[in-house]
Amino acid sequence: MPRHSLKTLMFGLLLAIVAGLPARAQSVEELVRQLPDGSFSERGRVVAQLAATGDTRLVPLMEALAAGDLNAVRETGQVVLVAPASGSVRIADALTGEAAGEVARDAVERIRVNNSLRRAIRTALGQLTLHNPDRATRLAATRAMFQAADPENIPLLDAAIALEEDTSVRQAMEEAKAAAILRTRASAEDFAKAVDVIAARGGRASLGILTSALASAPDDARPAIESGIRAIESRLALLNVAKNVWHGLSLGSVLFLAAIGLAITFGVMGVINMAHGEMVMIGAYTTFVVQNIVRTSYPDLFDWSLAIALPAAFLVTALVGIAIERGVIRWLYGRPLETLLATWGLSLIIQQTVRSTFGASNREVGNPSWMSGSFDFYGIAITWNRFWIVLFSLAVFTVLLAIMKRTALGLQMRAVTQNRRMAASMGIRTPWIDAMTFGLGSGIAGLAGVALSQIDNVSPNLGQGYIIDSFMVVVFGGVGNLWGTFVGALTLGVVNKFLEPYAGAVLAKIFVLVFIILFIQKRPRGLFALKGRAVET
Predict the structure, then answer these.
(1) Mind giving me the DSSP string for 54-88?
(2) Mind listing the pLDDT tens digit for each residue in 34-64?
(3) Which of 6, 111, 199, 442 has its CA 20 to 30 A from that of 87?
(4) What pTM was computed for the model?
(5) Is 92 helix (H, G, I), strand (E, B) or coil?
């Protein structure tokens, strides 16, 4: 064989051997430099390669890329983060974070992204964080993969599930894997297992996953998916009922706090107090004043500001109530129309006084840290402020029951309620009982104002939104009866919340009002009628 032919043959064999060798794996730094180049789909493949490296330094880089904050230096191709400087920009390496000096603004170019690339980045972030030592990071990554439901994540999830020791995180990974399986051509058995996992998870997100899977599922897998959809729908229906009950109880507790003071004064004295809503408003403004003093003078005690405001609001509104009773109402006993007009006039005077003192605009009353945020209870988002208000209303109810049943003042109040003349003839000072009763009712309205300041706007018109509802609660539950007011408030709150999705808030209140009118035609003294010789005549 000629020498040159032998050389050619050997050279060809060498090329074949080199071509058959596996390509050298690119480093993370090399892959990062490829991010500004190519089409969006090519960059998506680069992002997938970066995710496969498992380098956790890439997490902030990927987040910046998804947000559109990643740039490339035109001259060198270095991928950087930029920060504005005077006449230029400061740049830092996107991977290491090391400062790289300052360059002109037009020396860098933003790396553009589109929706498909963002989806690839979200998936990559999930892959990079599945093995993070931090539990919260792994859980967030798993939830991102559940939302993506990408079949390519199944091997990653299998590897992570095998290593995961936290039960709740492993369960979330199983759910993410099941969501991904439903987008594959898996066997009917695997499909059924995945459907069971998603159905057990429940929620609207799971319902959406099963509904979309049903459209493309094979015939043998459709019955399992349809069964899972029915199971989730029935669970969501029960959850909606539970949510309406909770929201109704929350509304009912607010109505109870606003109405209980009115029930006491109306029951004992027979006074239609149209200024009761203004007592609630005074309690809310007392909270505002107390918080301002605490905020400026004792900022470390801010979380205790409501505890300080409760006795202050009770005392202020109780004293205002006693002053109204001694100054105006005691001259109008036995004349309900004049009492109604007089208290209505007083409500206008109090509103204007507050408006002139604090202004007509809403005032901010902050939430302490223990009343901020919410928590999840079996799928129901419960805000802490509403939760504490419900407990507070129960505490107020318990204390009032103890006062009415266990104290001399409560005994005398019940005696005056049942038969004023007989109580007077037995030596009970009915004028003093009237003043104390009006003060107690007004003080409780002030406590309601403290609670309402956490969920409503504090303004001169605050009380007007609750006076009509308070009268409805009192009439429905039974005049002067604490249990009637309690049950009536909770009942009307729950009924309102069940009607609102179908009729709207305004029509729901109208329907409730019509129901109460019809109800008192049959039971004029309400749900729990007081008993006594004078009451029954």
Answers:
(1) T-TTHHHHHHHHHTT-EEEETTT--EEEEEEETTE
(2) 888 888 888 888 888 888 777 777 878 888 8
(3) 111
(4) 0.68
(5) strand
